[in-house]
Amino acid sequence: MRVRGMRDVLPGEARRWRDVESAMVDVLDRFAYQEVRLPMLETVELFSRGVGEATDIVEKEMYCLTDRDGQAMALRPEGTAGCARALDENGMLYNQTQRVFYRGPMFRYERPQKGRYRQFHQIGVEAFGLSGPDIDAELIQLGCELWRALGIAGEVRLELNSIGSPAARAAFREALIGWLEPRKASLDPDSRRRLATNPLRILDSKSEETRRALDNGPAFKDYLDDASSEHYAGLKALLAELDIDYVENPRLVRGLDYYTRSVFEWTTDRLGAQGAICAGGRYDGLVELLGGRATPAAGFAIGVERVVLLHDAVHGVSPEVPADVYCCVLQPGLHGAALAAVQRLRRMAPALRFRVHAGGGKLKNQLKRADRSGARWALLFGEAEIREGLAALKDLRGSAEQERLRLADVAARLNGRRAAKE
Ligand code: ATP
Ligand code: MG
Question: Is 278 helix (H, G, I), strand (E, B) or coil?
Fold first, then answer.
């Protein structure tokens, strides 16, 4: 039995995943961000320091295990802390800037539902060593370009906020506690608990009652420090110049403790409650928190499952056809020669997918399989064809006559058809 919250990604969907991921990686390449590949297992301490003890992630969502040496380990619930650790530990943050991305599975023990799983995948993008709003704007521009490449730009909305310096947040936090303490009875149980541990997270609550209790309460913008205000204004000016639309959401906070200043999120209305497809912001405090030198940084993480869901909702899903050409072998003794011939064809027509029938059987049955596979063409190898270096090409979806052709002509014909189709 599959473990709760885990998903099996089967052929058709896996193909779409690959297309979606490679379109995004392509954009990242063109923005000159470099890929890093990072471990899935880290120490618990990395996350309790880097993400924060009072966050949902660390408090109740982490998959922890003790290894044979008695060390407390966790399956990574997110990628930023590990990325900062890795770059710092490898001396890549001192006196230099880095723009990197990573991808892979993350693990959180939460209630599984559509768009929310216990193993899910992120593509994370991080820029280190850059403190100005220029890099925040670049990251947002990069996000926009990702959605454009996937054809989902029209379905997402950018939300923006600034959560200021740690000192500004501390002052706001006090004001918020002061406002909510007398209204405690109307908060949902999670928010009541957070009032003591992580009150900023209450702003993010989905409970209607809690949201009402926050109305007319302290507004973060009144607590924003001057330097953060200036940074925020700089970012907004750049976005205006880039013609990037956004809505300011004063209640946008991040679940992770290490954010400072800019925070942003892309959401969609097409996925129900799990509408956030990408979230990020600036986290100037993280590297130092992990024991490195103070290093400004900003980044975002994309939820790949949700992006694929959105992509499917926008573009539809058609069943995957695994092969373009289904090759039939008329006699068992010809199989080796047919495999060799098809291999020559694969080299001559590299954009096409050839599947060779296996397991023998009558031609009629092989053609039935060819038809059911959805392939456009069948290619037949009989004794005469193999002897003369030919193959019989049959258009399974059209009315053209079957033709005996030299292999090179088969390739030319298939390449031509493919080109004409595209
Ligand atoms: P949410 O509010 O939906 O729980 P989050 O604030 O916990 O999201 P982040 O930690 O910022 O999310 O992660 C960035 C992105 O990763 C999210 O915007 C979302 O697209 C995706 N994501 C987060 N948790 C899950 C999950 N359990 N399953 C699938 N995708 C997820
Ligand atoms: Mg969450």
Answer: strand
Q: Residue whose CA is closest, atom 16 of ligand 1?
A: 303
Annotate 100-130 with b (16+ C-beta within 10 A) or e (fewer): bbbbeebbbbbeeeebbbbbbbbbbbbbbbb
Q: Which positions ≥6 away from 180 have C-beta within 8 Å?
A: 187, 191, 195, 199, 202, 213, 214, 217
Please tell me the residue having the least CA distance from ligand 1 atom 2. Answer: 276
Rounded to whole angstroms, the Cα distance separating 44 from 371 reads 53
Are 77 and 106 spatial neighbours (Cβ–Cβ below 8 Å)? yes
Q: Which ligand is nearest to the CA of 111?
A: 1
3-state DSSP call for residue 261? Answer: strand
> Is the CB of residue 309 below 6 angstroms from any atom belonging to ligand 1?
no
Say which amino acid occupies 239: L
Ligand 1 centroid to Cα of residue 303, in Å, is: 6
CA distance 153 to 331: 53
Residue nearest to atom 9 of ligand 1 (CA): 279
Q: Whose CA is nearest to atom 6 of ligand 1?
A: 255
The residue among 93, 61, 95 whose CA lies nearest residue 256 is 61
What class, spelled out in words, does domain 325-421 have in CATH? alpha beta
- Dump pLDDT digits (tens) for 257-291: 678 999 999 999 999 999 999 999 999 999 999 99
CA gyration radius, the chain: 28
DSSP states along 27-80: HHHHTT-EE----SEEEHHHHIIIIITTSHIIIII-EEEE-TT--EEEE-S-SH
Q: What is the structure's pLDDT at 178?
A: 94
Options 1.20.272.10, 3.40.50.300, 3.90.1520.10, 3.30.930.10; CATH for 11-165+225-315 is: 3.30.930.10
**Distance from the first to the final alpha carbon of the chain:** 42
Every domain range in the chain assigned CATH 3.40.50.800: 325-421
Q: Residue 77: nearest ligand to its CA?
A: 1
Q: Which ligand is nearest to the CA of 114?
A: 1
| pLDDT < 50 stretches in the chain | 420-422
| pLDDT of the residue at 256 | 66
What residues pair up with 43 in beta bridges, in sequence order?
Answer: 73
